Amino acid sequence: MDQRQTRDPGAHDPGAHGPTGTPADTHDTADTHDRTGAHGPPGTPDPTLGEARDPTADEQVGAIGAKAGRGLRWSLLGNVGTKATTFVMGLVLARLLAPEDFGLYAIALAATTFVMHVNDVGIIAATVQWRGRVEDMAPTATVMAMAFSTGIYGIFWVIAPYFAELAGSAEATPVVRLLTAVILIDGVTAVRAGSLMRGFGHDRLTRANIAGSLVNAAVAITLAANGAGAYSFAAGQVAANTVTGVLVLAWAGLPFRLGFDREVAARLLRFGAPLALGLGIEAVLMNADYVIVGAVLGPVALGFYLLAFNVSSWVPSVIGTALRYVTVPSFSRLAEQRPEALSLGVQRSVPLLVASVLPVAVVTATLAPEIVAFLYGATWAPAAGVLAVLAVLMVVRMLTSLAFDVLTSAGATRATVWMNLVWAVALVPALWAGTHWYGVRGAAIGHALAGVLVALPMAALALSRAGVRLAPVPPTLLRPLLGAALSAAVTVALTGAIAGVAGGTDGGPVPLRLCLAGGGGLLVYALVVVPADRLRALGPLLRPGRPRRLGRTGRLG
């Protein structure tokens, strides 16, 4: 249910079955969680909280937050492992393939991302958010997911030549047809993946996704080394999804049964149809730049743009993917209990998210040339200017993703349609104008401006209309924003100083600039943003030569 897949060649996983990682209590299946009544009607206390009385909103947030925290730690650990594998694969493919191959794959990826957003009509999200027993809806949901996936794949098989021609490369047609086949696998496994996520069963998702990523790397690199070009990406991804899908079916703990209940189907469509429409529009948002840049500038320029978007997607991919499969079940449980619990959860989540993402965005924006040169070589230098701008979009995507998850958890799926529709209406002309005005960097500028000026205000409006109180949030963002501004200034100053000391035209060794300038900027950010008491607590641990002792509580002191 990765509704916002990253577009990293070799790292992208259309149809990935959830994040990698799991909380500590994943020995229970989703069926067991349902039988405990943990997912009962609004107002029903969760027996897993160990509370005989009705818990307060703060207690509910704390209890579910503890589960989410354990799940997030495992998700991040597993996701980092998976992305490390695919990142190395991306580096290898960048040296085996030409920018044109990346451009052809980008066209197929744009089509696949769109169909992955709409193919199951929101069945995975509906399974996670379902009020009641999963066993009651699973047969109907499985039939619906398989039917819609098959129908949509048939449509895209027919229109693939026209889509590729629209994107400026008719030769991408067979790659589009091959890569979009992953939705057939997703249709079969959708309900089982949702069931695992609903019960925080991320350990099984972890193993399935890691196995798929290893298969992806082996197949893609082998094919690329033998001259398969853009087919390397597509074939590797189809093989990966097949392996992952088989493991999800085996480990979900939910019997595979087919059936059809009209009442269940109606409930699923009322929830899922607006969600699928909203996600379809979101797919347009995240892939319209591929089509426009490819049509206006050609596949080579599109390859540079794709590489820059890859790097800017690392944080949304690693952190955002892990967060999504924790936030959706967590906010769903809060939303079905009391409104103030949902608001409190959002108020606590937004500052943490912003404080975590901003330092990465600052380093990416200020050291974009060094990052591209160090990782991919001088051939890809034109991607650096694009990456510096897309760092802004990185932050926007993380915040709008969180808003989308909260709205989905609250059942306000129609609001997601309007939020993304307004964004799309503003984005497409901005991309078209930017690409004609300033090439690939102009496309990035158009994307970033539409995100800041349209997407973020629309997300805040949608959350407010859904009953989420956002008034306490802005004051908590002042310190991270100040830290980001000072960090950027220090990083730029250090980069210039290193260039002045090194002399010449290259500004000094790239690793030196990355380490010193980037490290200095991150240090300044930490000094501004991290509370003073936490920094003081780190003092004894950082002083060399001073023995550390254990206090009576068992903590270092």
UniProtKB/TrEMBL annotation:
Keyword Plastid part of the UniProt annotation: no
Transmembrane region(s): 76-98, 104-128, 140-163, 175-193, 205-225, 231-254, 275-298, 374-396, 417-438, 444-468, 480-504, 510-530
Keyword Phosphoprotein attached: no
Membrane topology: Multi-pass membrane protein
Main location: membrane
Chain segments carrying region Disordered: 1-54
Superkingdom of the source species: Bacteria
Cellular location(s): Cell membrane
Keyword vocabulary terms for this entry: Cell membrane, Membrane, Transmembrane, Transmembrane helix
One Pfam family this sequence matches: Polysacc_synt_3
UniProt feature, compositional bias: Basic and acidic residues: 1-15, 25-37
Protein family: Belongs to the polysaccharide synthase family.
Name by which UniProt lists this protein: Lipopolysaccharide biosynthesis protein
Organism annotation: Streptosporangium longisporum
